[in-house]
Each structure stands twice: as C-alpha cells, then as structure tokens.
User: Fold Cell division ATP-binding protein FtsE from Dissulfurirhabdus thermomarina.
Amino acid sequence: MVRLEGVAKHYPPDIVALQDLNLAIAKGEFVFLTGPSGAGKSTLLKLLFCAERPTQGEIFVDGIPLASLSASQVPHLRRKIGVVFQDFKLLTNRRVFDNVALSLEVTGLKRDQVERRVRQILDSVGLGGRIGQLPHQLSGGEQQRVAIARAVVNRPPILLADEPTGNLDRARTDEVMALMEELNAQGTTILFATHNERLYRHTHRRVLRLVDGRVEE
Ligand SMILES: Nc1ncnc2c1ncn2[C@@H]1O[C@H](COP(=O)(O)OP(=O)(O)OP(=O)(O)O)[C@@H](O)[C@H]1O
Assistant:
C-alpha cells in the first residue's frame, strides 16, 4: 500500500530530515512510527500525502508513483488517504456535521447520501448526539473523534495519524486507540506516528523508529 525507495528529504538551507529511506507497508497493516523529536516523522507522513515532495527517491501509494502526479492530481490521491493531526484542525466556526460533511461534498455525493454517511460515521465514533454542536462545545477527545470521522468518512484505504493522542489524557487516548483498532479491523491500513511508547509496547504491531532521518525496525 505504501512503498518508499531511497527517499531523502532536505529542507533549505541544509537540514536533512530523511535520508535513504526504504520501507514497505502492506495493505491492512497497522504500523507505528516513532523516534525522537525532529527525527522526521511528520516529514515522512507529509511526503505520503504530497504536502511535501522528496528531494530524492520514489514513493508509491496504492501503486501510484507520487512523482508522476501533477498538482491538479493531488486531490485525487488525497481521497485515498485520511489524515489526523495532534491539534485536530477542525473548522471552529462550523458544526460537527459540516466538519465531517465537507470532505464528502467534494466527492460529488448527493446531499441525502452525504447526510446519511455523516450520521453513520458519527454514530460509529459515539458522537451521533453531538452533530449540531460547534467544536468548542466538545472535549478534546470528542474533537479528535470528529477529526477521525472526517478523515475516514469517504472510506480511504489508508489512514495517516500524526501524534493524534498527543493532546489527550489516558482515557481519551485509549478511546482513540480502540477506534483505530476498529478501523484497522475493517481493512484500513494505518501509519501511526507517536512518542508514546505505551501505545505500542504491548502490541504485536510493527514499529518503525526514525533516528537521524533513517529508519530502524
Ligand atoms: N518546512 C520546514 N522547513 C525547514 N525545516 C523543516 C521543515 N519541516 C521540518 N523541518 C525540520 O526537519 C526535521 C524533521 O522534522 P519533523 O517535523 O519531520 O520531525 P518529527 O519527528 O515529526 O518531530 P516532532 O516529533 O517534534 O513532531 C527537523 O529538523 C525540523 O526542524
């Protein structure tokens, strides 16, 4: 589902964020990405959804060579990829419903289909009753569950998570992890960046550790 071959990313003037990265993530895997601050975790995720382009090397997502994509084709790639961030990035002046619906409306679904899908996904993350509220009326954990619902409402095969539990307490973190497990059980390939060793220590999941821009398993 994801393949990197000899990937490097440099930022000007002389920062080497990633170097000679080779890795493959199979369809349906749930892989953790860890490593110290500044190791390049966010950079790696950004390369996968074309928010950054590699300085060297090739990246394939679901068989698509990303180097071949023009700027106008990037939105098509992004429909395959859900992304969740530490700071949720919800639209603060839009209701929970709209935050989730926006990512479906761009796909051209009819209004009643959008409404049905949004209700369904919000029910599945336990927020069916909060559909008309604004983000600030929700707790941090609830806001993150809205962000996850938004990321997966159009059923992308891949979910990228960049420290999604970084702002959450232990109980809320466990709720988010349970949701991730559920999405993975339904077939979503997940790449989950985190500093929190507790989240992967006792799992059987593969853990990729970035150190100085290189990957160790
Ligand atoms: N847009 C940018 N311009 C210049 N340097 C950048 C840029 N983005 C990231 N960097 C640098 O690249 C390196 C990797 O950063 P990145 O954010 O990928 O690390 P990270 O592992 O996600 O860190 P953290 O755990 O603190 O979020 C760091 O040295 C960072 O300062």
Remarks:
- The first strand starts at residue 2 and ends at 11.
- The mean pLDDT is 94.
- Helices lie at 41-48, 74-78, 96-105, 111-124, 140-152, 170-185, 198-201.
- The radius of gyration is 17 Å.
